[in-house]
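Severity: low
Component: inverse-folding endpoint
Summary: output formatting inconsistent between runs
Steps to reproduce: submit the following C-alpha coordinates with default settings.
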Protein backbone atom coordinates (compact mmCIF):
# COMPACT_ATOMS: atom_id res chain seq x y z
CA UNK A 1 0.00 0.00 0.00
CA UNK A 2 1.28 3.44 -0.89
CA UNK A 3 1.92 5.44 2.29
CA UNK A 4 2.99 9.07 2.18
CA UNK A 5 3.70 10.49 5.61
CA UNK A 6 5.40 13.73 4.67
CA UNK A 7 6.06 15.87 1.61
CA UNK A 8 8.91 18.40 1.86
CA UNK A 9 9.36 21.23 -0.63
CA UNK A 10 13.05 22.06 -1.12
CA UNK A 11 12.53 25.24 -3.05
CA UNK A 12 10.04 28.00 -2.30
CA UNK A 13 7.44 29.33 -4.70
CA UNK A 14 9.00 31.15 -7.60
CA UNK A 15 8.84 34.94 -7.47
CA UNK A 16 6.19 36.71 -9.51
CA UNK A 17 5.60 40.24 -10.71
CA UNK A 18 1.98 40.08 -9.57
CA UNK A 19 0.82 42.47 -6.86
CA UNK A 20 -0.42 40.73 -3.72
CA UNK A 21 -2.99 42.34 -1.48
CA UNK A 22 -1.20 44.32 1.23
CA UNK A 23 -2.26 46.55 4.07
CA UNK A 24 0.38 49.22 4.54
CA UNK A 25 -1.97 52.13 5.25
CA UNK A 26 -5.21 50.67 6.53
CA UNK A 27 -6.38 47.55 8.25
CA UNK A 28 -8.26 44.84 6.37
CA UNK A 29 -12.02 45.15 6.75
CA UNK A 30 -14.22 42.07 6.28
CA UNK A 31 -17.99 41.81 6.40
CA UNK A 32 -19.96 38.61 5.96
CA UNK A 33 -23.71 38.14 5.47
CA UNK A 34 -24.87 34.57 6.13
CA UNK A 35 -27.94 32.88 4.70
CA UNK A 36 -29.29 29.47 5.67
CA UNK A 37 -31.13 26.86 3.63
CA UNK A 38 -31.57 24.62 6.65
CA UNK A 39 -34.96 23.32 7.69
CA UNK A 40 -35.76 24.74 11.16
CA UNK A 41 -34.43 22.34 13.76
CA UNK A 42 -33.05 20.06 11.05
CA UNK A 43 -29.30 20.52 11.55
CA UNK A 44 -27.83 17.09 12.40
CA UNK A 45 -25.02 16.99 14.98
CA UNK A 46 -22.52 15.60 12.47
CA UNK A 47 -22.60 18.96 10.69
CA UNK A 48 -21.05 20.80 13.60
CA UNK A 49 -18.95 18.27 15.46
CA UNK A 50 -16.37 15.72 14.30
CA UNK A 51 -17.13 12.02 14.34
CA UNK A 52 -15.39 9.64 16.72
CA UNK A 53 -12.84 8.76 14.10
CA UNK A 54 -11.98 12.43 13.67
CA UNK A 55 -13.72 12.87 10.32
CA UNK A 56 -16.06 15.72 9.48
CA UNK A 57 -18.99 16.04 7.11
CA UNK A 58 -18.33 17.21 3.56
CA UNK A 59 -18.53 21.04 3.50
CA UNK A 60 -20.74 20.90 0.40
CA UNK A 61 -23.54 19.40 2.53
CA UNK A 62 -23.70 22.40 4.88
CA UNK A 63 -27.13 23.93 4.09
CA UNK A 64 -26.34 27.58 3.51
CA UNK A 65 -24.01 30.18 2.03
CA UNK A 66 -22.59 33.63 2.66
CA UNK A 67 -21.77 36.84 0.87
CA UNK A 68 -18.22 37.92 1.79
CA UNK A 69 -16.89 41.46 1.26
CA UNK A 70 -13.28 42.39 2.02
CA UNK A 71 -11.51 45.76 1.83
CA UNK A 72 -7.72 45.81 1.48
CA UNK A 73 -4.89 48.08 0.40
CA UNK A 74 -2.82 47.28 -2.69
CA UNK A 75 -0.08 49.09 -4.61
CA UNK A 76 -0.67 49.35 -8.35
CA UNK A 77 2.81 50.29 -9.55
CA UNK A 78 1.96 50.71 -13.18
CA UNK A 79 -1.02 51.40 -15.42
CA UNK A 80 -1.62 47.68 -15.83
CA UNK A 81 -1.07 45.28 -12.91
CA UNK A 82 -1.92 41.79 -11.76
CA UNK A 83 -3.48 41.54 -8.30
CA UNK A 84 -3.69 38.24 -6.40
CA UNK A 85 -5.87 37.37 -3.38
CA UNK A 86 -4.75 34.00 -2.07
CA UNK A 87 -6.88 33.49 1.06
CA UNK A 88 -10.39 33.21 -0.33
CA UNK A 89 -12.83 30.44 0.56
CA UNK A 90 -12.29 27.07 -1.09
CA UNK A 91 -16.03 26.79 -1.85
CA UNK A 92 -16.28 30.18 -3.54
CA UNK A 93 -18.69 30.65 -6.45
CA UNK A 94 -16.35 32.25 -9.04
CA UNK A 95 -19.27 33.71 -11.01
CA UNK A 96 -20.13 36.00 -8.08
CA UNK A 97 -16.71 37.65 -7.69
CA UNK A 98 -16.51 41.45 -7.88
CA UNK A 99 -13.53 43.84 -7.65
CA UNK A 100 -13.69 47.60 -7.25
CA UNK A 101 -11.19 50.36 -6.43
CA UNK A 102 -12.46 52.74 -3.77
CA UNK A 103 -9.56 55.10 -4.47
CA UNK A 104 -10.15 55.50 -8.22
CA UNK A 105 -13.51 53.94 -9.12
CA UNK A 106 -13.86 55.89 -12.37
CA UNK A 107 -10.74 54.82 -14.29
CA UNK A 108 -9.64 51.63 -12.49
CA UNK A 109 -11.24 48.61 -14.10
CA UNK A 110 -10.89 44.86 -14.37
CA UNK A 111 -9.70 43.62 -17.75
CA UNK A 112 -9.63 39.96 -16.78
CA UNK A 113 -10.22 37.86 -13.67
CA UNK A 114 -9.40 34.24 -12.90
CA UNK A 115 -10.04 31.81 -10.09
CA UNK A 116 -7.15 29.40 -9.62
CA UNK A 117 -7.95 26.29 -7.60
CA UNK A 118 -5.41 23.67 -8.68
CA UNK A 119 -4.22 23.12 -5.11
CA UNK A 120 -1.05 21.26 -4.31
CA UNK A 121 -1.44 17.67 -3.03
CA UNK A 122 0.66 14.52 -2.84
CA UNK A 123 -1.11 12.98 -5.83
CA UNK A 124 -0.70 16.11 -7.97
CA UNK A 125 2.96 16.49 -7.05
CA UNK A 126 3.60 12.87 -8.01
CA UNK A 127 1.73 13.39 -11.28
CA UNK A 128 3.71 16.55 -12.15
CA UNK A 129 7.06 14.85 -11.39
CA UNK A 130 6.59 11.81 -13.64
CA UNK A 131 9.81 11.40 -15.66
CA UNK A 132 11.58 13.82 -13.30
CA UNK A 133 14.00 13.29 -10.43
CA UNK A 134 12.73 13.07 -6.84
CA UNK A 135 14.29 11.97 -3.55
CA UNK A 136 12.65 9.39 -1.31
CA UNK A 137 13.59 8.66 2.32
CA UNK A 138 13.18 5.06 3.49
CA UNK A 139 13.62 3.71 7.02
CA UNK A 140 16.06 0.83 7.40
CA UNK A 141 16.18 -0.17 11.03
CA UNK A 142 17.03 2.96 13.01
CA UNK A 143 18.57 4.71 10.02
CA UNK A 144 17.13 6.73 7.14
CA UNK A 145 18.33 5.98 3.62
CA UNK A 146 17.80 8.58 0.89
CA UNK A 147 17.16 7.29 -2.64
CA UNK A 148 17.12 9.57 -5.68
CA UNK A 149 15.83 8.57 -9.10
CA UNK A 150 13.53 9.38 -11.98
CA UNK A 151 9.87 8.80 -11.10
CA UNK A 152 8.37 6.39 -13.66
CA UNK A 153 5.07 5.40 -12.00
CA UNK A 154 3.04 5.71 -8.77
CA UNK A 155 0.78 2.69 -9.41
CA UNK A 156 1.26 0.11 -6.65
CA UNK A 157 4.15 2.08 -5.18
CA UNK A 158 6.88 4.39 -6.46
CA UNK A 159 8.81 3.09 -9.46
CA UNK A 160 12.20 4.85 -9.77
CA UNK A 161 14.83 4.57 -12.49
CA UNK A 162 18.19 4.75 -10.76
CA UNK A 163 21.21 6.67 -12.08
CA UNK A 164 22.89 3.34 -13.09
CA UNK A 165 19.85 2.44 -15.27
CA UNK A 166 18.33 0.01 -12.81
CA UNK A 167 14.70 0.19 -11.63
CA UNK A 168 13.64 0.18 -7.97
CA UNK A 169 10.09 -0.16 -6.55
CA UNK A 170 9.34 1.46 -3.18
CA UNK A 171 6.09 0.34 -1.52
CA UNK A 172 6.73 1.93 1.84
CA UNK A 173 8.66 5.11 2.55
CA UNK A 174 8.87 7.92 5.10
CA UNK A 175 9.24 11.07 2.98
CA UNK A 176 9.15 12.15 -0.64
CA UNK A 177 11.10 15.30 -1.53
CA UNK A 178 10.77 17.44 -4.63
CA UNK A 179 13.20 20.12 -5.87
CA UNK A 180 10.51 22.78 -6.44
CA UNK A 181 6.79 23.44 -6.63
CA UNK A 182 5.66 22.85 -10.23
CA UNK A 183 4.15 25.77 -12.10
CA UNK A 184 0.35 25.96 -11.90
CA UNK A 185 0.09 24.36 -8.47
CA UNK A 186 -0.84 26.67 -5.59
CA UNK A 187 -1.23 26.19 -1.85
CA UNK A 188 -4.44 28.22 -1.50
CA UNK A 189 -7.37 29.05 -3.77
CA UNK A 190 -6.44 32.32 -5.44
CA UNK A 191 -8.31 35.11 -7.23
CA UNK A 192 -6.26 36.87 -9.91
CA UNK A 193 -7.20 40.15 -11.60
CA UNK A 194 -5.65 41.96 -14.56
CA UNK A 195 -6.18 45.61 -13.56
CA UNK A 196 -5.94 48.80 -15.62
CA UNK A 197 -5.70 52.19 -13.85
CA UNK A 198 -4.82 55.79 -14.60
CA UNK A 199 -3.60 56.33 -11.02
CA UNK A 200 -0.68 54.04 -10.15
CA UNK A 201 0.12 53.86 -6.46
CA UNK A 202 -1.73 52.88 -3.27
CA UNK A 203 -5.36 51.85 -3.77
CA UNK A 204 -8.07 50.81 -1.35
CA UNK A 205 -10.02 48.00 -3.05
CA UNK A 206 -13.15 46.01 -2.22
CA UNK A 207 -13.60 42.36 -3.20
CA UNK A 208 -16.88 40.48 -2.88
CA UNK A 209 -17.98 36.90 -3.54
CA UNK A 210 -20.38 34.18 -2.46
CA UNK A 211 -19.31 30.93 -0.86
CA UNK A 212 -21.09 27.80 0.26
CA UNK A 213 -20.12 25.66 3.24
CA UNK A 214 -21.40 28.15 5.81
CA UNK A 215 -24.77 28.40 7.55
CA UNK A 216 -26.55 29.46 10.73
CA UNK A 217 -29.64 28.59 12.70
CA UNK A 218 -31.52 29.87 15.73
CA UNK A 219 -32.07 27.97 18.98
CA UNK A 220 -34.55 29.11 21.62
CA UNK A 221 -34.22 27.99 25.23
CA UNK A 222 -37.37 28.39 27.32
CA UNK A 223 -37.87 27.77 31.03
CA UNK A 224 -41.49 27.11 32.05
CA UNK A 225 -42.94 27.85 35.48
CA UNK A 226 -46.45 26.87 36.59
CA UNK A 227 -49.11 29.57 36.76
CA UNK A 228 -52.22 30.04 38.86
CA UNK A 229 -53.93 26.96 37.40
CA UNK A 230 -53.24 23.88 35.25
CA UNK A 231 -53.65 25.83 32.01
CA UNK A 232 -51.38 28.82 32.66
CA UNK A 233 -47.73 29.60 33.31
CA UNK A 234 -44.84 31.94 32.59
CA UNK A 235 -41.75 31.56 30.40
CA UNK A 236 -38.18 32.82 30.43
CA UNK A 237 -37.20 33.06 26.75
CA UNK A 238 -33.59 33.09 25.58
CA UNK A 239 -32.21 32.72 22.06
CA UNK A 240 -28.86 31.91 20.46
CA UNK A 241 -27.49 31.88 16.94
CA UNK A 242 -25.21 28.99 15.95
CA UNK A 243 -22.91 29.47 12.94
CA UNK A 244 -21.05 26.70 11.12
CA UNK A 245 -18.10 27.67 8.93
CA UNK A 246 -16.70 24.96 6.67
CA UNK A 247 -16.15 27.23 3.67
CA UNK A 248 -12.40 26.69 3.57
CA UNK A 249 -11.51 30.14 4.89
CA UNK A 250 -11.54 31.88 8.25
CA UNK A 251 -12.87 35.40 8.85
CA UNK A 252 -11.22 37.48 11.59
CA UNK A 253 -12.85 40.47 13.25
CA UNK A 254 -15.57 40.51 10.62
CA UNK A 255 -18.75 42.55 10.58
CA UNK A 256 -21.39 39.84 10.91
CA UNK A 257 -24.86 40.04 9.37
CA UNK A 258 -27.66 37.48 9.15
CA UNK A 259 -30.74 37.48 6.91
CA UNK A 260 -34.12 36.08 7.98
CA UNK A 261 -36.84 35.46 5.42
CA UNK A 262 -37.65 33.35 2.39
CA UNK A 263 -35.25 34.73 -0.22
CA UNK A 264 -35.61 33.23 -3.68
CA UNK A 265 -32.68 32.31 -5.89
CA UNK A 266 -32.67 31.02 -9.45
CA UNK A 267 -32.85 27.20 -9.50
CA UNK A 268 -29.58 25.31 -9.85
CA UNK A 269 -29.00 21.67 -10.80
CA UNK A 270 -28.21 20.91 -7.15
CA UNK A 271 -31.20 22.43 -5.35
CA UNK A 272 -33.50 25.41 -4.99
CA UNK A 273 -32.07 27.76 -2.37
CA UNK A 274 -34.11 29.04 0.54
CA UNK A 275 -32.81 31.31 3.25
CA UNK A 276 -33.51 31.66 6.90
CA UNK A 277 -31.92 33.82 9.64
CA UNK A 278 -31.74 35.36 13.13
CA UNK A 279 -33.03 38.39 15.11
CA UNK A 280 -32.21 40.63 18.01
CA UNK A 281 -33.17 43.65 20.07
CA UNK A 282 -32.09 47.20 19.33
CA UNK A 283 -31.42 47.67 23.05
CA UNK A 284 -28.89 44.80 22.98
CA UNK A 285 -26.90 46.67 20.36
CA UNK A 286 -26.64 49.67 22.66
CA UNK A 287 -25.85 47.70 25.82
CA UNK A 288 -23.40 45.03 24.75
CA UNK A 289 -22.86 45.12 21.00
CA UNK A 290 -25.46 42.42 20.36
CA UNK A 291 -27.61 42.01 17.26
CA UNK A 292 -29.49 45.00 15.88
CA UNK A 293 -32.59 44.13 13.86
CA UNK A 294 -34.24 46.09 11.07
CA UNK A 295 -36.59 45.47 8.17
CA UNK A 296 -34.73 44.88 4.92
CA UNK A 297 -36.84 44.67 1.75
CA UNK A 298 -39.36 41.91 2.63
CA UNK A 299 -36.97 40.23 5.08
CA UNK A 300 -35.19 41.06 8.34
CA UNK A 301 -31.53 41.96 8.64
CA UNK A 302 -29.61 41.44 11.88
CA UNK A 303 -26.20 43.05 12.37
CA UNK A 304 -23.88 42.14 15.22
CA UNK A 305 -22.64 45.26 16.98
CA UNK A 306 -19.15 43.94 17.58
CA UNK A 307 -16.56 42.18 15.38
CA UNK A 308 -16.85 38.40 15.16
CA UNK A 309 -14.18 35.85 14.28
CA UNK A 310 -15.31 32.74 12.40
CA UNK A 311 -12.42 30.26 12.08
CA UNK A 312 -12.62 27.67 9.33
CA UNK A 313 -14.08 24.31 10.45
CA UNK A 314 -15.68 25.77 13.53
CA UNK A 315 -19.05 26.33 15.20
CA UNK A 316 -19.70 29.65 16.91
CA UNK A 317 -22.62 30.66 19.13
CA UNK A 318 -23.76 34.23 19.72
CA UNK A 319 -26.67 35.41 21.88
CA UNK A 320 -29.54 36.47 19.64
CA UNK A 321 -31.22 38.72 22.22
CA UNK A 322 -31.16 39.12 26.01
CA UNK A 323 -33.46 36.70 27.81
CA UNK A 324 -37.05 37.87 28.27
CA UNK A 325 -38.31 37.07 31.76
CA UNK A 326 -41.82 36.23 32.94
CA UNK A 327 -43.56 35.98 29.56
CA UNK A 328 -47.18 34.87 30.21
CA UNK A 329 -48.16 31.68 28.43
CA UNK A 330 -51.09 29.32 28.21
CA UNK A 331 -50.89 25.55 28.46
CA UNK A 332 -53.26 24.17 25.84
CA UNK A 333 -54.48 20.56 25.93
CA UNK A 334 -55.87 19.27 22.63
CA UNK A 335 -57.63 15.96 22.09
CA UNK A 336 -57.68 14.94 18.43
CA UNK A 337 -59.38 11.58 18.71
CA UNK A 338 -58.93 10.36 15.15
CA UNK A 339 -56.14 7.82 14.78
CA UNK A 340 -52.88 9.42 13.65
CA UNK A 341 -53.16 8.97 9.91
CA UNK A 342 -53.85 11.12 6.87
CA UNK A 343 -57.51 12.05 6.58
CA UNK A 344 -57.74 13.64 3.18
CA UNK A 345 -60.75 15.22 1.53
CA UNK A 346 -62.48 13.15 -1.10
CA UNK A 347 -63.82 13.74 -4.61
CA UNK A 348 -67.12 12.14 -3.58
CA UNK A 349 -68.85 11.60 -0.23
CA UNK A 350 -67.14 9.03 2.01
CA UNK A 351 -70.05 6.71 2.86
CA UNK A 352 -67.95 3.85 4.26
CA UNK A 353 -69.10 3.72 7.90
CA UNK A 354 -65.87 2.05 9.02
CA UNK A 355 -63.61 4.80 7.79
CA UNK A 356 -62.21 6.92 10.63
CA UNK A 357 -63.59 4.86 13.53
CA UNK A 358 -60.10 4.07 14.89
CA UNK A 359 -59.34 6.08 18.00
CA UNK A 360 -56.35 7.66 19.71
CA UNK A 361 -56.11 8.14 23.50
CA UNK A 362 -53.39 10.81 23.45
CA UNK A 363 -54.15 14.34 24.62
CA UNK A 364 -51.47 16.62 23.18
CA UNK A 365 -49.87 19.41 25.22
CA UNK A 366 -48.98 22.82 23.76
CA UNK A 367 -47.59 26.09 25.11
CA UNK A 368 -48.92 29.28 23.52
CA UNK A 369 -47.68 32.84 23.98
CA UNK A 370 -47.87 36.13 22.13
CA UNK A 371 -44.77 37.70 20.60
CA UNK A 372 -45.68 41.14 21.93
CA UNK A 373 -43.65 43.98 23.41
CA UNK A 374 -46.00 44.16 26.40
CA UNK A 375 -45.10 40.52 27.13
CA UNK A 376 -41.36 41.23 27.09
CA UNK A 377 -40.80 40.22 23.44
CA UNK A 378 -42.22 42.02 20.40
CA UNK A 379 -39.45 41.24 17.90
CA UNK A 380 -39.36 39.21 14.66
CA UNK A 381 -38.37 35.65 15.62
CA UNK A 382 -36.47 33.68 12.95
CA UNK A 383 -37.31 30.05 12.35
CA UNK A 384 -35.55 27.64 14.67
CA UNK A 385 -35.79 24.95 17.31
CA UNK A 386 -37.40 25.68 20.67
CA UNK A 387 -36.39 23.62 23.70
CA UNK A 388 -38.42 23.90 26.89
CA UNK A 389 -37.28 22.99 30.40
CA UNK A 390 -38.82 23.20 33.87
CA UNK A 391 -37.08 23.57 37.20
CA UNK A 392 -37.29 20.69 39.67
CA UNK A 393 -37.82 22.41 43.07
CA UNK A 394 -36.25 19.43 44.87
CA UNK A 395 -32.72 20.26 43.69
CA UNK A 396 -33.09 23.33 41.46
CA UNK A 397 -32.10 21.46 38.29
CA UNK A 398 -33.65 22.20 34.91
CA UNK A 399 -35.34 19.17 33.38
CA UNK A 400 -36.17 18.93 29.66
CA UNK A 401 -39.94 18.71 28.98
CA UNK A 402 -40.17 18.96 25.18
CA UNK A 403 -39.17 20.73 22.00
CA UNK A 404 -40.62 21.92 18.72
CA UNK A 405 -39.72 24.13 15.74
CA UNK A 406 -41.20 27.44 14.68
CA UNK A 407 -41.28 29.17 11.33
CA UNK A 408 -40.43 32.87 10.96
CA UNK A 409 -42.77 34.66 13.36
CA UNK A 410 -43.40 38.38 13.12
CA UNK A 411 -44.02 40.60 16.12
CA UNK A 412 -47.52 40.57 17.61
CA UNK A 413 -48.12 37.02 16.36
CA UNK A 414 -48.82 33.88 18.40
CA UNK A 415 -46.18 31.20 19.00
CA UNK A 416 -47.52 27.67 19.50
CA UNK A 417 -45.17 24.92 20.72
CA UNK A 418 -46.05 21.24 20.88
CA UNK A 419 -44.33 19.55 23.82
CA UNK A 420 -45.79 16.04 23.92
CA UNK A 421 -48.79 14.20 25.36
CA UNK A 422 -50.42 14.58 28.76
CA UNK A 423 -49.89 11.65 31.13
CA UNK A 424 -52.94 12.12 33.40
CA UNK A 425 -55.54 13.28 30.86
CA UNK A 426 -56.92 10.55 28.61
CA UNK A 427 -59.32 10.64 25.67
CA UNK A 428 -61.57 8.11 23.96
CA UNK A 429 -63.50 8.54 20.71
CA UNK A 430 -66.01 6.25 19.04
CA UNK A 431 -68.77 6.21 16.45
CA UNK A 432 -72.09 5.28 18.07
CA UNK A 433 -74.30 5.29 14.97
CA UNK A 434 -74.11 5.81 11.21
CA UNK A 435 -76.92 6.28 8.70
CA UNK A 436 -76.84 6.81 4.94
CA UNK A 437 -79.60 7.41 2.38
CA UNK A 438 -78.06 7.14 -1.09
CA UNK A 439 -81.34 8.01 -2.82
CA UNK A 440 -81.78 11.26 -0.92
CA UNK A 441 -78.05 12.01 -0.92
CA UNK A 442 -77.38 12.34 2.77
CA UNK A 443 -75.68 10.56 5.66
CA UNK A 444 -75.45 11.11 9.41
CA UNK A 445 -72.85 10.09 11.95
CA UNK A 446 -73.08 10.07 15.76
CA UNK A 447 -69.78 10.60 17.61
CA UNK A 448 -69.08 10.16 21.34
CA UNK A 449 -65.89 11.50 22.96
CA UNK A 450 -64.87 10.84 26.57
CA UNK A 451 -62.22 12.78 28.47
CA UNK A 452 -60.92 11.62 31.86
CA UNK A 453 -58.84 13.85 34.13
CA UNK A 454 -56.67 12.09 36.75
CA UNK A 455 -54.90 15.28 37.84
CA UNK A 456 -55.43 16.98 41.19
CA UNK A 457 -56.96 20.09 39.56
CA UNK A 458 -59.38 20.92 36.73
CA UNK A 459 -58.08 21.20 33.17
CA UNK A 460 -59.34 22.83 29.99
CA UNK A 461 -59.25 20.62 26.92
CA UNK A 462 -59.99 21.47 23.29
CA UNK A 463 -61.68 18.59 21.48
CA UNK A 464 -60.69 18.85 17.82
CA UNK A 465 -62.89 17.14 15.22
CA UNK A 466 -62.42 16.93 11.44
CA UNK A 467 -65.63 16.64 9.41
CA UNK A 468 -63.87 14.89 6.56
CA UNK A 469 -66.64 12.82 4.96
CA UNK A 470 -67.97 15.63 2.75
CA UNK A 471 -67.84 19.39 2.29
CA UNK A 472 -71.52 20.11 3.07
CA UNK A 473 -72.17 19.40 6.73
CA UNK A 474 -74.34 20.52 9.62
CA UNK A 475 -74.14 19.61 13.28
CA UNK A 476 -77.75 18.82 14.16
CA UNK A 477 -77.32 17.81 17.80
CA UNK A 478 -74.61 18.43 20.41
CA UNK A 479 -73.98 18.26 24.13
CA UNK A 480 -71.46 21.14 24.16
CA UNK A 481 -71.00 24.35 22.20
CA UNK A 482 -68.39 24.32 19.46
CA UNK A 483 -66.24 26.80 17.54
CA UNK A 484 -65.75 26.53 13.79
CA UNK A 485 -61.97 26.53 13.21
CA UNK A 486 -62.19 26.24 9.41
CA UNK A 487 -64.47 24.83 6.71
CA UNK A 488 -63.92 21.22 7.85
CA UNK A 489 -62.79 21.52 11.50
CA UNK A 490 -64.65 22.26 14.75
CA UNK A 491 -63.39 22.70 18.33
CA UNK A 492 -65.32 21.76 21.47
CA UNK A 493 -63.68 23.56 24.45
CA UNK A 494 -64.53 21.75 27.70
CA UNK A 495 -63.45 21.80 31.34
CA UNK A 496 -62.79 18.46 33.03
CA UNK A 497 -62.84 18.53 36.82
CA UNK A 498 -60.25 16.58 38.81
CA UNK A 499 -60.86 12.82 38.86
CA UNK A 500 -63.92 13.31 36.66
CA UNK A 501 -65.06 12.38 33.15
CA UNK A 502 -66.70 14.57 30.51
CA UNK A 503 -68.65 13.10 27.59
CA UNK A 504 -69.02 15.11 24.38
CA UNK A 505 -71.60 13.92 21.87
CA UNK A 506 -72.65 15.32 18.55
CA UNK A 507 -74.53 14.34 15.39
CA UNK A 508 -73.30 15.60 12.01
CA UNK A 509 -75.50 15.58 8.89
CA UNK A 510 -73.82 15.48 5.44
CA UNK A 511 -75.65 16.20 2.18
CA UNK A 512 -74.72 16.35 -1.51
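Observed output (run 2 of 3):
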Amino acid sequence: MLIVTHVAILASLCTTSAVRAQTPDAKDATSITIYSTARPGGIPPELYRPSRDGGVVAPQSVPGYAVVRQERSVNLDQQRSTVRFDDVAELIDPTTVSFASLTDPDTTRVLDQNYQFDLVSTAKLMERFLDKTITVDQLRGDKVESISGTLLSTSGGLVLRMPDGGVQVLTNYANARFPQLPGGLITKPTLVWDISTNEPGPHRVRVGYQTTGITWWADYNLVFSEGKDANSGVLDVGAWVSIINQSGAGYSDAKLKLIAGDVHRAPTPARNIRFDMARARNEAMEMNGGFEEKSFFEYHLYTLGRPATLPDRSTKQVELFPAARGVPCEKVLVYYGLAQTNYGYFASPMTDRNYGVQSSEKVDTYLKFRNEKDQGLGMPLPSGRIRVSKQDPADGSLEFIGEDVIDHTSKDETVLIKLGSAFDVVGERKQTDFRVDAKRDWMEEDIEIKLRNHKAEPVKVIVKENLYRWANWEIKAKTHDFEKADARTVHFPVVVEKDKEVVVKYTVHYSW
